[in-house]
Design goal:
201 residues; alpha/beta; 6 strands
Amino acid sequence: MASSLPKCKSYQKYEVRRRHPNPKASALLVIDVQKYFSSMAKPILHNLLTTIRLCRRASIPVLFTRHCHKSPADHGMLGEWWNGDLIFDGTSESELIPELDRHPDDIVMEKNTYSGFQGTCLEEILKERRVEEVIVTGVMTNLCCETTAREAFVKGFRVFFSVDATAMVNAELHDVTLKNLAYGFAYLVDCERLQEGLFGK
C-alpha cells in the first residue's frame, strides 16, 4: 500500500483553500487504529506517530476511537453491508494497536458505526474543552475518517484532514476522498505542513 499511494504533495492540486490549525482551539482525532486494521495502518504508522507527537508538543488534546460491536442490536446496516464481518468487543482485533503513543489520561471512545460522533460523547467532550477545530487521522480514509470529518463540519467544527496519517487499502478511494473533502469539508494537511503551522519553519 505504501508504494501505491501518490506522494502527499500531489494532493495540493485538490486544495480549494489552505489554513493552519489553531493549537489553542484544536483536538486530534485518531480513528480506529486497531489490530483489525493493523496491515492497513502499518504503512502510515510513522506519520501517525509524528502527528500525535506534534500535537502533544503543541498541547493539543489527543482523542482515540475504537470501533466495536457488542451485540446484534448494534450492528445496524454494517452487519448487512459487510456480511457479518465486524469487529467484536472483547476480541484481540478490537484492541488499539500497542505501537500508538497513548498516555494514561487519553480518552478512548467506543463506536459502532462509521461516525465518531454517532452514539458517542465526542461532541460533548469537544465542546467542554472549547475545541473549535479537529484534525482527523486513522483508518479507513473513505469510511470512518471521512464520515467523522463530514459530520464534524456539519456540526460546526473546522476540519483538517491528514493526507499522510490516514489509510485505505485502495489508493484510488483514498485519493477521491481527499479530493471530495478538500472541495467542501476540510483543509488538507500532512506532517510537514502541520509542523510548519504549529511551530513555523
